[in-house]
Amino acid sequence: MNEVRAMTQTERQKTYLKDYTAPTFQIPSTHLAFDFRSENGNDFCRVTSTLKLQRRPGTEGDLWLDGEELVLEDIKLNGAALAASAYVREDKGLKLLNPPSEFTLQTTVKLEPKKNTALEGLYGSGAVALTQCEPQGFRRITYYLDRPDVMSSFEVTIEADKATMPVLLSNGDCVERKDLGGGRHFTKWVDPFKKPCYLFALVAGPLAVLKDTYTTGSGKKVALEIYTNEANIPRCGFAMESLKRAMKWDEERFGLEYDLSTYMIVSTDDFNAGAMENKGLNIFNSRLVLADPKSATDYNYHMIEAVVGHEYFHNWTGNRVTLRDWFHLSLKEGLTVFRDQEFSMDMVSRDLVRIDSVIDLRESQFAEDDGPNAHPIRPESCYAVDNFFTSTIYEKGSEVIRMMQTMVGRPGFRQGMDLYFKRHDGQAVIIEDFAAAISDANKQDWSQFKRWYSQAGTPRVKVTENFQGDTYTLTLEQSCPSTPGQTEKLPFHIPLIVGLVTRDGKDLELTHPSLKKNTEGKTLIHLMEPKQTFEFKGLKEKPLLSLNREFSAPIVLEWNPPVEELFALYKMDNDAFNRFEAGQKLQQLEIAKFIDAAKSKSTAALDPRLIEAQIAILNDARLDNALKKKMVERPSLASLAQSLPGFDSAAWKTGIDAFRRAQGQALATVARDIYTKLHGKSDGVLTPEARGERALKNWALGQLCNAGEGHALAEKQFRETSMMVDQEIAFALLMEAPEAKAREIASNFYDQWNSDSLVMNKWWSLQAQTEAPWTFARVQELLKHPAFNMKNPNSVYALLGRFSDNLIEFHAKGGETYRFFAQELKKIDALNPQVAARLSGAFDFCPRVSPALQAEAKKALDGLLADKLSPNAFEILSNARKALGA
């Protein structure tokens, strides 16, 4: 065989969207034969691929096939051995020299799944072999045109020992099963729908199955199967019910019915991300499938339902219609996040899910937009397409879809979705194709709106109010900060739901020629110019402005209304999101006051109006318990870091702790009453109402701990509860106790749960997120703990990822933490570049710290970048280094 030429570090190159060209060949059919063997204690798999290739008319020249980490054993063209002079092997693939226009290529490669620590392609997770091909893992399975615009019909056969691999799964329908003798068996799978190779999946190993059925609206019976190990089958029930709810919802909301006879989910502990939507055979991280009240929190249940829905919804938005290239990833991910959010809103609470979605967006995507790795929803270039799986692509992409629905209304959006599938079913398309379907169906011109796809950054809208006589004047000015590679921004098309509220809490009927109502009756401002002014006449008094209701556009409002007006909105705005928003702003103002006092070594007093307003909310019969808790909870540190200047970990820690004590003491009486009333009331119940009761109860426990009187109660809850949601909250609160007590609690939790890998991830996280002087030392200890596995992404994210998110402690040690984290990143990058890249964002915050700490971050990054890194980590870290300057 030919020698493989290795690519050097200096050959790492960017890929650009502008350079896209259609493939010179298509692959009408793909046949894959997997043969799992074990010889002399060595497990391996031979993969024989038989590809029918056809040249695109009008093209000529060589054919490049992607292939990495492959041992090539045989290659044939049209059934005959291919001469060595007819192809060139490189470490990134195989080049066929001037092949014919139509031919059959057969290759046989040898793989060792258990040695594949990158968890891409075909890899091992315990005794199970499985695949992850998105975005470019298929090239680790066989030589192929590993790009989403090459769609093929797949036929797959799998052969293995029946004793070690009794379950053999792939995409589509199983058309044949048979014994081969000698303890071997065989399955054959045919997928009736063409797909790109990133949607290919295979699972082989000792797995148990939970079975159920679902009957579609047209009467078709679908077999539903969830695979995991035998012991975890009882924990799959909620995921199964979530799947059935998602299937029913998609039929009712979008008219989309499932198209295969079987839908399978496989749970694994070793997975780089959350889950993967492979056609008919989804592979899930076990944390998003397995749950029972003893080991899973209410948040875990919410995420299982949302992600099961998300991957199912991909069957149409991602699989039936897929993306042309990875620069258009948001075509499927932004749209499907929107769909899973809408599903969750209908299953739980529209207001609560919307608020939580915005919190996540601000903490992750707004920070990304404001950092060194900012990029548009449709990026222009990359070193590694793996790095496209960002909050901007997913969450901001979802917000753009939501703005479309807001502008045309639900009926108009459904018409656009129907047109999208009518035009593009079975195709690989681009973002603009989706936008065109929605706008065409509603006869709207969205040429300016599409700037949301091409311009990075979070738009700012400056608000100026004026009231004279009987006229209220509202002036809005939009701008967008510079981002890497984009210094100048053109005006966005920003749809803003607006309300004017009277002093007694009623919404005024707004009449203005520039305002429009959507089909849900929401009044919209379409901000399209750099500056626009709106006048409302005939008013008796200045109204309260409720702007960007429902967070209708992902923007930052530069607006500082009088505090009295914020309190009024906090108490009575009819829009739940803006009521929440007013409370967040009021608490930010108070926290800023306490931080400033900490910096000046002085003291601050809490505004009693805040406590009065929060007690009023807690007594508001219009709000359910979950919304009450959401309305009064403190802004997160990540949120504060975006809105408050001058980050100083020590002063922030002192100031925020002082605020928490003052608030806890002021709310202690009402918190005590809430805890007494709700504790134990909803144990074992999983309804949204029961989750809300527990959320509010545990908020109350936190306030009692802030007041200095709740730690005994927290310890009692920790030791006696039968529900993980209550135990986890108590654990987190007790981590704030003196170190000896915190270690005792951690040890007790470990003794109780060390045999459960999912709960152990909570154990790593809860200690790594603690804002205590001993946290860094504890993280270093835990890294050496015999239960910690650096090869398992869940464990790494839980310990190192959570510690890097701990802004107080990660940036508190004079650079020691930066050096430590850089050393660990280097180790992880050698094992799993995708995980390393996701952790590399820890340095994006460093431009916000002191000059002395920035200098330490530069040293750590310079040392890392001097080493040989994967393109994944290199891209993220080099951008972070540039942001810190010379």
User: What gyration radius follows from the Cα positions, in whole Å?
Assistant: 28 Å
Structural class: alpha+beta
Hey, roughly how much beta strand do the residues contain?
15-25%
Distance between the termini: 48 Å
Report the strand count: 33
Task: Summarize the helices and strands and which ones pair or pack.
Blueprint: E1 15-16, E2 25-39, E3 42-55, E4 63-66, E5 71-77, E6 80-81, E7 87-90, E8 93-96, E9 102-111, E10 121-125, E11 128-132, E12 151-161, E13 167-170, E14 173-181, E15 184-190, E16 195-196, E17 202-205, E18 208-215, E19 221-228, H1 237-254, E20 262-268, E21 275-276, E22 281-285, H2 298-313, E23 322-323, H3 330-347, H4 350-369, E24 381-382, H5 391-424, E25 428-429, H6 431-441, H7 451-454, E26 460-468, E27 471-479, E28 494-501, E29 515-517, E30 523-527, E31 531-536, E32 544-547, E33 556-558, H8 563-572, H9 576-599, H10 608-618, H11 625-632, H12 637-643, H13 649-666, H14 668-678, H15 688-706, H16 711-720, H17 724-734, H18 739-753, H19 757-768, H20 775-783, H21 793-805, H22 807-810, H23 816-831, H24 833-840, H25 851-865, H26 871-883
Parallel strand pairs: 2-12, 19-20, 20-22, 23-25, 26-33
Antiparallel strand pairs: 1-24, 2-3, 3-9, 4-8, 5-6, 5-9, 7-8, 10-11, 11-17, 12-15, 12-16, 13-17, 14-15, 18-19, 21-22, 26-27, 27-31, 28-30, 28-32, 29-30
